[in-house]
Amino acid sequence: MLATRMGYKIIPSSMNTSPDSWYQARSASVPKYTAFKGKGVFDVAVIGGGLAGITAALEIARRGKSVALFETECVGSGASGRNGGFVSAGFAESIEKIAARIGAGDARALMGLSQEGVDYIRGAIKTFSMTEIDPVSGWLNAQRFDDRSSMIERAERSGEKFGRPLEYMDIDKVRSLLKSERYFQGLYDADAFHLDPLQYTQQLAGAASAAGVSIFENSDVVESRESANGFELVTSGGTARCGKIIVAGSAYLKRIFPEIRRGVLPVATHVVVTEPFFDAPDHAINFSGAVSDTRRAGNYYRLLPDKGDGVRLLWGGRITTGTRPPQNLASQMQRDIARTFPQLGQVEIEHAWSGLMGYATHKMPLIGEIKPGIWACTAFGGHGLNATAMGGLVVARAICEDDDRVNLFDHYRAEWGGGIFSQVITQSIYWFMQARDGLDELRPRRDIAEA
Ligand SMILES: Cc1cc2nc3c(=O)[nH]c(=O)nc-3n(C[C@H](O)[C@H](O)[C@H](O)COP(=O)(O)OP(=O)(O)OC[C@H]3O[C@@H](n4cnc5c(N)ncnc54)[C@H](O)[C@@H]3O)c2cc1C
């Protein structure tokens, strides 16, 4: 831990070692799972203790097979336990671009599956009587330039063509909720919600364990070999035999399964949480749901309930390609907050952390059997809460019930992600997106001036 004059207390040493996030700080002691030692035989082995791996393992165990889940560190130590907590239908890729690539019919079917992911999370919270998840409804996506007609068009297209209803909000409505001149029109998703992702991940792992999944933490899978009746997985502590493997290691996967790994670009993104506001910040944010903006490289934020001492602001955004968070992360985020809500003054940042998202070049998940017996369930990018639930479910149904809905993902296979140039490519794309966002915001003002 590192205390600075800004009150920025936490600098994680890497992207998945003790992030000491706000989620972790408020989390009570959690069950620990032992490391795998010796030998074992399972129908299915899952690599990765994030939400993709846990959901797949749970759903396969519920369908009667023996399952082992191997995790390098601990459950939720990757992106799943440190993200923004926004749950909504859709994918990292926009539905318009999906439809342009695969046609409106299959795009609508994929959107339906992604909605199933949202419903799955809602259902799991109830079924497993989860506590401390703090779900809060609603997501407002606000535009940072004035373009009424395109927002109305997007709302109509989303509902009519893709079955995802969004409510159009005009400038006055948006600014009554978010008191910032940066914002113009918005789209409101009443079905979306936000939650504590670490609690959800840990409690879903608890449900998987209760359903019979053998969860092994501190168990890095370092090698996979074919054997007579399937595969042998070599971990730091032993060797497990299994009939099928599900690879759900996302951006944290190293060394093994190059055919999957080379298609997944690691992209770091960052989150901060402020100190509590003792006066609720109604003069800036009068909205309890999730908020994002329509920029390609935008910010997202939400108010956090804080037991007894006011409300905090969780603020996320920025993308970097290094494996460590930027040293001045807290001050960069402070500036982003001040640019949007100058009336908040200089907010003190108490927690700051980073995580890695796994992106395929097409921004869609890699889901399906890539070789006989080896399944991918990974690359959910920055839209993984609903999508990992959906991915785990789709793979479990395909393995246990021969359900062919998994074939919808044949449109999106692993593509070369740039190899050793991937970091440079990703950083350049981010800067390019920022430049286009800046132009988008300038253009309407220029149009008005020219008129
Ligand atoms: C800061 C941040 C904010 C985000 N905000 C949101 C949001 O608000 N809403 C949203 O929908 N999505 C969000 N996302 C994206 C979302 O968190 C991810 O898409 C999702 O959690 C990915 O889950 P996963 O299970 O695929 O991967 P992860 O959660 O990253 O899990 C992969 C796990 O695999 C393990 N592993 C890797 N290799 C091995 C191996 N060889 N042996 C054993 N274990 C291994 C790793 O240790 C890791 O724990 C955000 C991501 C980040 C980083």
Descriptive overview:
Helix 2 runs parallel beside helix 7. The chain is built from eleven helices and 17 strands. The radius of gyration is 22 Å and the shape is globular. It has 451 residues and is an alpha/beta fold. The strands form two sheets. Strands 3, 4, 5, 6, 11, 12, 13, 14 and 15 form a nine-stranded mixed sheet that branches.
Summarize the structure.
With 451 residues, the chain is of the alpha/beta class. It has helices at residues 22-26, 51-62, 95-102, 104-127, 148-162, 171-177, 197-210, 258-261, 329-340, 384-401, 422-450; strands spanning 38-47, 67-70, 86-87, 136-142, 167-169, 186-194, 214-216, 221-227, 230-235, 238-247, 265-274, 290-293, 300-305, 311-320, 349-359, 366-371, 374-378. The chain is 33% helix and 25% strand.
The description of the largest β-sheet is: 9 strands, mixed
CATH class: Alpha Beta
What is the CATH topology classification name?
FAD/NAD(P)-binding domain
Bound molecules: flavin-adenine dinucleotide
Question: By helix and strand content, what is the structural category?
Answer: alpha/beta
Q: How much of the sequence is in beta strands?
A: 25-35%
CATH architecture: 3-Layer(bba) Sandwich
